[in-house]
Amino acid sequence: MIRIANAQGFWGDSLEAPLEQLRGGPIDYLTLDYLAEVTMSILQKQYSRDPQAGYARDFPQMIERGAKEIVERRVKVVANAGGVNPETCGQAVAASLKRAGYGGRLKVGVVTGDNIVGRLDDLIGRGVELRNMDTGAPLADVRARVRSANVYLGAFPIAEALRQGADIVVTGRCSDVALSLGPTIHEFGWKADDWDKLAGGIVGGHVIECGAQVTGGNCQVDWETMPDLAGIGYPILEAEPDGGFAVTKHPNTGGRVTVAGVKEQLVYEIGDPRAYMTPDGVADFTTIQLEQAGPDRVRFWGIQGRPATEFYKVSISYAAGYKAVGTLVYGWPDAYKKARLAGDILRTRLERLGLKFDAIHCECVGANACHGDALSGEPSPDLAEVTLRVGVRGGDAAAVERFTREFAPLALNGPPVVTYPSGGKPKVEEVIAYWPALIPKREVTATVTVRPDA
Amino acid sequence: MMTRVPLRRIAHARSGDKGDCSNIGLIALKPEFYPALVAQVTAERVKEHFRELCKGEVERFELPNLHALNFLLHEALDGGGTVSLRTDAQGKTFSAALLRMEIEIDLPAESS
User: Fold this and answer.
1) Nearest CB to A431: which of B63, B83, B88?
2) Are residues B87 and A260, on separate chains, in Cβ contact within 8 Å?
3) Nearest-CA distance from B36 to chain A in Å?
4) A404: closest CA of chain B, how far (Å)
5) Alpha helices in B24-80 (DSSP H)
6) Tally of CB atoms within 10 A around B77
7) CB nearest B97 (choices: A267, A365, A371)
8) In chain B, what are the domains?
9) Given this model, what pLDDT does residue A222 score?
10) Are A440 and A149 in contact (CB under 8 A)?
11) b or e along B79-109 (b: 16 or more beta carbons within 10 Å of the residue's beta carbon)?
């Protein structure tokens, strides 16, 4: 059995969780997921301005703070912190170890090959159209506006880095579950066609990939009695060679590991449960067996898998116009009616200005913003306050900019009992949209480099 | 005795996003509630329930091993996470929105 602790569900997750996972009890591996879809386009932009940037800077900082435990407890670390610049991230990790007084003790492995933004013209030229999985359109339609393009690599390059002796593995884009699946492949010697075992590892990876969302965070069942959410424990996967596993957390941490919470995480961001697709195999979630096997411990077994497909998924981001969102707060009484009226006034003024947008969206936070009018029902006239939130989206940056000037006037020339939040006029943002596509696996080569710490 | 209850009384849920598609996993709080979910929380009813938010089709998948259903709501996120102008651009609260739906169920006295 190996113990794999996840301490980062996305970039922006707890800065303390990695240290708590290292210090709270025995673990063999620490995994950290830094890359949401939006992250890659931001990192690509940073990289284009500075070739030493483009990775998750939080990661080398975390390594420096946790170096003592990582070295002395012999914990291996796997993170997709490399973003669009895994090599430089790996160098930053080595520098962190040195600064912490542990230079020359560990090997840092780097996985590259996921970043294909520089190869797009070649690929398209050779007939790899990278059609949008949702719309069917070829990438050529938005080629000039592409900002980043990264293949979701699988777990085997991570396993290879570990086989070559890496203590810390830094990757660019890979499937979320690869971070924990790589270590199990390496430790248990799973083969590329051990479909059921791989499926177990895939499900285990999915269970822990969102951090504390499986240990009581976001859990709807008995949330009011959830112990010590302030000190919530992050998940630990206890993986077995046969593909079975248990999920648990360190003792004396907050939260709860229950069947109810685990089921919520299992159904989180899945499609057809019979075919949970990853680069390393397809897991059938309808074969999952689980039970409460003790306090804060859920055991899984019986998971079945099927062969991987011949394709990798590619996440491509592209510029898709501009947007801005502004808010005004309306107070009791009849706060909702006032906010609605102000929204209508704003629409009329935009129309009279002749401004054209692809979308104008008005919502009333506190009354209908999340679930819409039909489901939220008629708001009470006694609501203490309602936030009017209006956004526009379109291809014309000047029109979006002009829209942002229409909020402040409403503080004086609209319905009463209004307060204009501090922070000035809304900001115009560039819209980055996503283009999911498939690429034949033969077009992609993952490269693994393992170097002793300088 | 048959009782009309909101789903929140007999189920819990979690929702997330993939592009402009929202997924909602709906899980029976007790195994004995699952058949009522299967029979009544159909893709058609969910589409009708979310008519204001979801512009595309609704697909439903069954996970009898987890006493759960998974729904995919296509074109439900105003273009998707980074494009959307909504507060809930990723449909994180759609789980609770689904739990507003009411169904008929034969509840024993202590849980009604």
Assistant:
1) B83
2) no
3) 19
4) 14
5) 34-40, 43-49
6) 25
7) A371
8) 2-105 (3.30.70)
9) 97
10) no
11) bbbbbbbbbbbbbbebbbbbbebebebebee
Determine, for residues A271 and B12 on separate chains, whether the beta-carbon distance falls below 8 Å.
Answer: no
d(CA B11, CA B34): 9
In Å, how far are A62, A65, A107, A110, A415 from A100, measured between CA atoms? 11, 8, 15, 21, 59
Give residue A326's domain range. 316-433
Give which of B83, B100, B95 is closest to A361, Cα–Cα. B83
- The answer, yes or no, to whether residue B109 has pLDDT greater than 70, is no
Identity at A134, one-letter amino acid code: D
In a domain, A33, yes or no: yes
Residue B66: which of B7, B11, B106 has the closest Cα?
B11
CA distances from A219 to A425, B37, B55, B95 (A): 36, 20, 28, 11
Strands A297-301 and A245-249: what pairing?
A: antiparallel
Q: Which two tokens stand for residue A454?
A: 């300088």
Residues in A touching B88 (Cβ below 8 Å): 369-370
Q: Closest residue of A to B12, CA-based?
A: A220
Instruction: Label residues A45-67 b or e (16+ Cβ within 10 Å = b).
Output: bbbeeeeebbbbbbbbebbbbbb
Q: In chain A, what is the straight-line distance between the N-terminal and C-terminal CA atoms, in Å?
A: 32
Q: Does B81 touch chain A (CB under 8 A)?
A: yes
Taking every pair of Cα atoms in chain A, the longest distance, rounded to a whole number of angstroms, is: 71
For residue A111, the distance in angstroms to the closest alpha carbon of chain B comes to 25
Q: What residue in B sits closest to A270 (Cα-Cα)?
A: B23
Cβ within 8 Å of residue A106, ≥6 positions away? A70, A71, A97, A167, A168, A453
Size of interface A-B (CB pairs under 8 A): 127
- For A221, other C-beta atoms within 10 Å of its C-beta total 17
Are the Cβ atoms of B83 and A287 closer than 8 angstroms?
Answer: no
Domain-located, residue A140:
no
Does residue A357 share a domain with residue A282?
Answer: no
- Which helix (H) or strand (E) covers residue A301, if one does? strand A297-301
Whether residue A105 lies inside any domain: the answer is: yes
Q: Is B22 on the interface with A (CB under 8 A)?
A: no
Domain shared by A210 and A322, yes or no: no
Residue for token digits 């003592």? A68
Does A398 lie in the same domain as A331?
Answer: yes
Q: Is the peptide bond before A51 cis (omega within 30 degrees of 0)?
A: no
Those residues with Cβ within 8 angstroms of residue A223's Cβ, 6 or more apart along the chain or in another chain: none
Cross-strand bridge partners of residue A254? A232
Q: Is the ipTM of this structure higher than 0.90?
A: yes
Q: What is the pLDDT of residues A83-121, one digit of tens each?
A: 999 999 999 999 999 999 999 999 999 999 999 999 999
Tokens 């102000």 -> residue? A342
Low-confidence ranges of chain A (pLDDT < 70): 453-454
Give CA–CA dist A334/A383, Å, rounded.
Answer: 7
In tens, the pLDDT along A395-418 reads 999 999 999 999 999 999 999 999
